[in-house]
Specification:
Number of helices: 21
Structural class: alpha/beta
Oligomer: single chain
CATH superfamily of the largest domain: Periplasmic binding protein-like II
CATH architecture of the largest domain: 3-Layer(aba) Sandwich
C-alpha cells in the first residue's frame, strides 16, 4: 500500500511538472503609436480589447507606448536604426509618410509583402485600394492603412449662405468672397506645404517630384517646373492673395471654430473634432478639396498613417501580424472612424451599421471618403528623403513670394534652387 501511495505521489509530481513545462507565457509585443486625445483613448481601448479577446486566445499581450507626434516617433526610430540598436525597436509602429524611406531600408523591417509570404492565406481584398497604394514604396507594400484621411474644405455654411454664397469649389471662388473679410475675420488662411502643394499640382496633372512623387524610386528633382504646373499654381495662389481673401498664415481650427476664419482646408480626420467644438453655434460645411481652377481635376491624395512591423523573431512577428490585422479589421475601423473622423480603410467597415448610421446623421463624414474613392491613382502623396526640410522649404519660399512680392518666375527659380538642392544633397549623401 505504501508503495502504491509513493508511486501515486511520484506520478502526480511528474504530471504537475509536465503541466508546468508546457504552460506558455504570452508573447509580449510593443506598439509605438502617435494617437492622442480622442484617437489616443480609442487606441488604448483597442489594445485592451485585443488583450482580453484575440490576444488571450492566441497568447499575445500588447503594450502600447505613446511616442508623441509622428515627427517625434520617426526621429526616435531613425536614431535607433542609425545606432543599430534593433532590439529597442517596437514590434508594431504607427508610421506617417515622413518615416517611409527610413523604414523601407531598415534591416529588420517586416513588410506586409513579407508577412503575406508567411501567410499566403491572408485576404486583404477588403482594404481600400487608394489607402493601400499610399503605403507602397518602390513596389513594396510597407504597411497597412490604419488612420486614413484626405484633405477637404471646411467652411462656415451659416455665414456663407447668409451672404448669398454656396460652398467654394476653386481658389477663384474663395477670391470672390473677399468682401466677407471683416474686422478680425479672414476668409481663408493657409500656406502650402508638401502634401497640399502635391494635391494642387496633382489636379494640374503633375507630380511635385520625379519618380511618381518618390513612390517608384528616390526623388532627385522637381517634376513640376518644365511642364509649367508649378508656375500655374503659383499664379493662382498669388492672385488669391492679392484679392484680399487669403491670409498668408497657417490658420488654426480654433480660429475657424470661433468664427474668425470662414474657410479652412484640413484633414478629413478633423470632422468629429470640429463638430464637437462648434457645438451647433453654426452649421459646419464640408466640401471636396479646393481646386486650382474650374479646369483642374478633382481630388486630393491620401494621408494619415499606417501600421508597420519589425522582425524580432518568429513568435513576436506572428503576434505583430495578428495585432495589425485586428486594428485594420472592419469592426475597429468603423469604430475608429466614428470616434475620430478618419476614413474607414476597410470596405467592410464602410458597409457596417456603425458607419451607415454615422453618415445618415452627419453627412460631413462621407465627403472625404467620396473624394478618396474618386481621386485617380496617379495622384500620389510625396515621399522624399529630406522630408522635414523640404516641407518647411515650400512654406518659406511661397511665403517669400507673397510677402516680398516676388514674381512667379522668381519664385519658381527660388524653389528650383532650394528644393532641388535639398534633393541633390540628400541623393549624394545617400547613394
Amino acid at each position: 500500500m505504501k508503495k502504491l501511495t509513493a508511486l501515486f505521489l511520484i506520478l502526480s509530481l511528474l504530471l504537475g511538472l509536465s503541466g508546468c513545462a508546457f504552460a506558455e507565457e504570452p508573447v509580449k509585443i510593443v506598439f509605438w503609436h502617435s494617437a492622442s486625445e480622442a484617437a489616443g483613448a480609442l487606441v488604448d481601448k483597442y489594445v485592451k480589447d485585443f488583450n482580453e479577446t484575440v490576444g488571450k486566445e492566441k497568447g499575445i499581450q500588447v503594450e502600447a507606448v505613446f511616442q508623441g507626434a509622428y515627427a517625434d516617433s520617426v526621429k526616435k526610430m531613425n536614431g535607433v536604426l542609425s545606432a543599430k540598436q534593433f532590439d529597442t525597436l517596437p514590434d508594431v509602429m504607427q508610421l506617417d509618410a515622413t518615416g517611409k524611406v527610413s523604414f523601407s531600408s531598415a534591416e529588420t523591417a517586416y513588410t506586409v509583402d513579407l508577412a503575406l509570404k508567411d501567410h499566403p492565406e491572408a485576404d486583404l481584398s477588403s482594404m481600400l485600394a487608394p489607402a493601400m497604394a499610399n503605403w507602397q514604396l518602390k513596389g513594396v507594400q510597407l504597411g497597412l492603412p490604419f488612420a486614413t484621411s484626405t484633405t477637404v474644405t471646411f467652411y462656415n455654411k451659416t455665414a456663407l449662405e447668409a451672404a448669398g454664397f454656396s460652398a467654394p469649389k476653386t481658389l477663384t471662388d474663395v477670391g470672390n468672397l473677399a468682401s466677407l473679410n471683416g474686422d478680425n475675420v479672414a476668409v481663408y488662411a493657409a500656406i502650402p506645404n508638401t502634401p497640399t502643394l502635391a494635391n494642387w499640382l496633382g489636379q494640374l496633372g503633375s507630380d511635385l517630384v520625379n519618380n511618381h512623387n518618390g513612390t517608384e524610386g528616390s526623388a532627385t528633382e522637381l517634376a513640376c517646373i518644365e511642364n509649367g504646373a508649378l508656375a500655374e499654381f503659383l499664379t493662382a495662389w498669388k492672385a488669391l492673395y492679392l484679392s484680399g481673401a487669403l491670409a498668408n498664415k497657417n490658420g488654426s481650427g480654433d480660429e475657424f471654430v470661433a468664427g474668425r476664419q470662414l474657410i479652412m482646408t484640413d484633414s478629413s480626420s478633423k470632422v468629429a473634432n470640429m463638430l464637437n467644438k462648434i457645438g451647433g453655434r453654426f452649421e459646419l460645411g464640408v466640401a471636396p478639396y479646393l481646386k486650382v481652377s474650374d479646369s483642374s481635376a478633382s481630388g486630393a491624395t491620401v494621408s494619415g498613417s499606417c501600421l508597420v512591423m519589425f522582425d524580432h523573431g518568429d513568435a513576436r512577428k506572428e503576434a505583430a501580424w495578428a495585432f495589425v490585422q485586428y486594428l485594420t479589421g472592419a469592426e475597429v475601423q468603423a469604430d475608429f472612424a466614428k470616434g475620430t473622423g478618419y476614413l474607414p480603410s476597410n470596405k467592410e467597415a464602410q458597409e457596417s451599421e456603425t458607419w451607415q448610421a454615422l453618415i445618415a446623421e452627419y453627412p460631413q463624414y462621407q465627403v472625404g471618403l467620396d473624394q478618396l474613392l474618386e481621386t485617380p491613382d496617379t495622384m500620389r502623396s510625396v515621399t522624399v528623403g529630406p522630408s522635414a526640410d523640404f516641407y518647411y522649404g515650400i512654406i518659406n519660399d511661397i511665403s517669400d513670394m507673397l510677402e516680398s512680392d516676388l514674381s512667379v518666375e522668381e519664385t519658381v527659380d527660388l524653389m528650383a534652387n532650394d528644393l532641388g538642392g535639398m534633393l541633390t544633397q540628400y541623393a549624394k549623401a545617400n547613394p
